[in-house]
Amino acid sequence: MATTAAGAPAVRRGLARRVAGSPWAGYLARRLGGVVAVLAFLIVVTFMIVRWVPGDPARQIVGLTAGEEQVRQVRERLGLTEPLWRQFGTYLRGLAHGDLGTSFTTGQPVSSMLSQRLPLTVELAMSALVIVLVVAIPLGTAVGVAQQRGRARVATSSFGVGASVIGAMPEYIAGTVLVYVFALTLRWLPVQGGSGPTAMILPALSIAIAPAAVLTRLVRNETAAVLSQDYITMAMSKRLSNTRLLLRHVVPNVVTSTLTLGGLILVALLGGTVVAENVFNMPGAGAEIVHAIVRRDYPEVQGIILVLGLVAVLINLIVDVTLGLLDPRVLTGARS
Amino acid sequence: MRGVRTRLPAMLLVGLVLAAVIVLVAVAGPILWQARADALTGDIRQGPSGAHWLGTDALGRDVFWRTVVATRSTIEMAVAATAIAAALGTFLGAMIVSAGPAVRTLGDRVIDLLLSFPPIIIALTFTAILSPGRASVVGAIGLAFCPQFARLTNRLALSVQERDYVTVARLLGVGRFRVVTRHVVPNIAPPLLVLTSVGFATSVVTVSGLSFLGLSVQPPSYDWGSLLASGLRNLYDNPGEAFGPAAAILVTGLAAGLVGDGLVRHMDPRGTSRPHRAVRRSADPPTAGDASRAGGAAPVASVRDLSIRRPDGRELVHGISLTVDAGEIVGIVGESGSGKSLTALALARLLPRELEWSAAHLNVNGVDLADPAKAPPARLATELGIVFQDPSSSFNPALRIGTQLTEVLRVHAKMSRRQAHALAVSRLAETRVSSPELRMRQYPHELSGGMRQRAMIAAAMLPEPKLIIADEPTTALDVTVQADVLRLLKQINTTHGTAILLISHDIGVVSSLCDRICVMYAGRVVEELSVEDLRRRDVRHPYTRALLAASPDTASERDGARLVPLPGRAPAAEDQGPGCSFAPRCPLAVPVCTEIVPPLVAEPSGNAVACHVETAAAEVRS
Q: Which three-class secondary structure state does DSSP give residue B528?
């Protein structure tokens, strides 16, 4: 990948010049270009959801017994009577005004439904993200170091098997187990519903467990790879304390290589919220989309997919920016 | 493809057996036990018992048999979804690769884009379009996972396409489609097989997940996902109702995962090896002689009887001794595998953990390194500088040059940031690094190779060490930069009086820079001589002679530019005989050479040689 202004060797002064000469300019421009493309894709796909429904979506909504008049009304409400390009224009105009249409079943605007439900989904995904990172990075590094130094052999060799088993556990099973153990048997935490941080613990855990195991294994592998690099030998020649060697020379490299590979795992947490909200009966956007699909409430489906897609795009962007901050080589494409 | 081992790994075997059992249950279940699974009883929501192993559900039906019978439905759906994903994904991936550049770029972008969304959201979108139900969930999951197959096929096919046999097939006029089916697909099949088994595991989980959400099979049909959903509702009364389907989903996922991981190991034997455990033997206590010597004109570094062994017990370095005096430049020269770099690393106490070493005496600048507890890290870091072979991999890519240069000063010399920075800048200037202030702020990848090596020398120089160990400092550099770096080392030696231990395979490099040279062969020092003698070609050992004759820098003068390559190759650690390791390649070898290892015999001149023939000749002369 070529870059716009990375190779300016002369020392420059002045903020404007530094911004223009910074490799960030090109990097961010490319990333934002990507974001725009994804957004366009999302808008087109969500618009087409109703149009791609096989047969007559209006007939599907009202059912086989309804009269022709009713079908016509629904078709009109979906805006299916106009030519496709005009329908798309209307859709775009609506989006520009934050109008995502009106729910068939509740008659509520989709945007107000989302503003009620989305915060919970985002909070849930964020809690899960924090759990995953807090577990995976320290634990994975520790196992990687122990393994490389030949310590605690039984623990490190059984780690791989344990991580594979836990990593294969879907959210709905993890959630069921957690409810059974912590809510029904130990009675430490509420079963379903409730509010406040305690209500968030089990759902967030149910989403986080499998990705945390997968990411921990990834961090372990990356740690082992980093520890065998020449620059670690050089750092060891500086006779640093173990802590400094780890925090300064190992962890930054582990985090960058892990993020490069593990960004998708973090995005997948978002998909986990859909399941967890259903297991724990939480009033989030993920629970609603399932109801909306069953009831064929196309405007709601459209809106939720658009917004969840948007969040996924944002997470990807945050991962990219973090990578750029941690490893300047990604800015210029010097790192493949 | 890669070397495939005949014995299947235990993992793969267990996975395959489990998978076979699951398939058997899927086929036989509904035929044999449908009646048991659907029989209504009065025992509603009973816990596990002898009659009902996993208890009963809300209608009194046996959970165990329902789980068994549901196997077919779930497995069918997962197989169908995986098949759609694999077939469609592979096809699309292959088509994108074989298409023109414009389509290829666009296709890559679209795959990237699809991969950046969680598969379950893609699957939900398709389910919404196709309306909930069994068939649409299968299609939706197949479509949701097909980008992963497309991406893998795409990557693999691209790497295969660049190989020679594909180019040849093209040149022979083989059609595009035929190239893909005949040459590309067979070569990318194994990794795709691995992805298929992993994809199947994910499909089982996702199929059950969508069913759990109520989007797939509708009552009265059931599969593991819908059984689990109903189990969750009755979790308080009968945990067994959730346990059955949950265990079934996990075991199936595990079986597919084991097959996938097993296939990976089966195809890539390297994946299974683990580093050997480090075993280190403490060395003998220093003798009286060493102590008395340390008092007088102490050498900067001295090592006696250094042996280095592999974990399997093979010796790589056989009891060598070496001293470097203050201000001296000593070269160790030898072919790769002669143990010269290991010796240097041992001296710096940086040997890889799996190698075992012992020495009667190992001392750098008065610091006793044989006992790690006694070696203070601060003195080691400041009194011994190291220049590593490859500057492109020896700087930490995530840290600025400045941070890496000042680290030793900040940590061990307790300097302030400002002081350390100023010193580092002046050292960079001294090593002729251009615009040192800028370099301090830059990252390693922003410097050229020669610049990085100069920065590395500056880093080694920073704490004013008494000794610099330079391990092949010019090997990774362009020829034009090599001379420059050597001049720099010489300059440091003369201006700062820093002793240098230079490791090189190039006798020309060593003779241009060093005062004294140790020639190593197969883990032993075979000759030690002054540079004057080397330049005069007054060498004793046949191996040193052969090295001189084979090097363009040293051979041209007398041999009329006729290079004489040294026949054969240095023996590996495992095929060394009892005698002199050079005997098989030696033109002067006599019978005794293959029986007894010649000792390193000192000559009056201060040189030393380890050769039966030469020692005998010297005795005759005297």
A: strand
* B-interface mutation test, from A230, A237, A331, most B Cβ less than 10 A away: A237
Per-residue pLDDT, B528: 92
Distance, in angstroms, between A72 CA and closest chain B CA?
Answer: 20
Closest C-alpha among A250, A262, A256, A249 to residue A321: A256
Q: Which amino acid is at A265?
A: I
Q: Six-digit token pair at B486?
A: 């050597």
- Could you give the CA distance from residue A27 to residue A331 in angstroms, rounded to a whole number? 5
Point out the least confidently predicted range of B187-196, B238-247, B590-599.
B187-196
Closest among B354, B10, B443, B286 to A324, alpha carbons compared: B443
Give the residue ranges of DSSP H helices in chain A. 15-21, 23-52, 57-62, 68-77, 84-96, 110-148, 153-167, 171-178, 197-227, 230-236, 242-244, 251-279, 285-294, 298-326, 329-332
Query: A312 and B390 in contact by Cβ < 8 A?
Result: no
* pLDDT for residue B84 is more than 90: yes
**B18–chain A Cβ distance below 8 A for any pair:** no
Contact A172 B386 (CB under 8 A): no
**CB-nearest partner of A290 from B205, B213, B278:** B213
Q: Which two tokens stand for residue B329?
A: 């430049």
The helix/strand/coil state of B116 is: coil
CB B245 within 8 A of CB B227: yes
Among A8-17, B169-178, B536-545, the minimum mean pLDDT is found in A8-17
Banded model confidence at residue B517, pLDDT cuts 50, 70, 90: very high
Q: What pLDDT, on the 0 to 100 scale, is given for residue B292?
A: 36
Q: Is the pLDDT of residue B20 over 90?
A: yes
A233 contacts in chain B (CB < 8 Å): 350, 388, 394
Give B46-73 as a DSSP string.
----SSSTT-B-TT--BHHHHHHHHHHH
- Residues 386-405 of chain B with CB under 8 A from chain A are 386, 388-390, 393-399
CA distance A283 to A289: 11
Token look-up 């060598």 returns B320
Interface of B with A in 262-301 (CB under 8 A): 274-278
Residues 402-431 of B with CB under 8 A from A: 407-408, 411-412
Contact A238 B129 (CB under 8 A): no
Quote the ipTM score.
0.85
Q: Which residues pair with B324 in a beta bridge?
A: B301
Query: CB distance A238–B407 less than 8 Å?
Result: yes
Domains defined along chain B, listed by start: 70-267 (1.10.3720.10), 301-621 (3.40.50.300)
d(CA B276, CA B268): 19
Residue numbers in chain A where pLDDT is lower than 50: 1-12, 336
Both structure tokens of B605: 């001149």
Place of tokens 């623990």: A155
Q: Which domains does chain A have, with CATH numbers?
A: 110-332 (1.10.3720.10)
What pLDDT sits at residue B529?
Answer: 92
d(CA B55, CA B480): 81
Least confident of A232-236, B196-200, B508-512, B615-619: B615-619
Which residues, numbered 432 to 471 in chain B, qualify as contacts with chain A under a Cβ-Cβ cut-off of 8 Å? Answer: 435, 437-438, 443, 445
CA distance B332 to B372: 25
DSSP code per residue over A187-210? --S-SS---SHHHHHHHHHHHHHH
Separation CA B118–CA B481 (nearest Å): 50
Q: What angle do CA A78, A81, A86 make, to 5 degrees?
A: 90
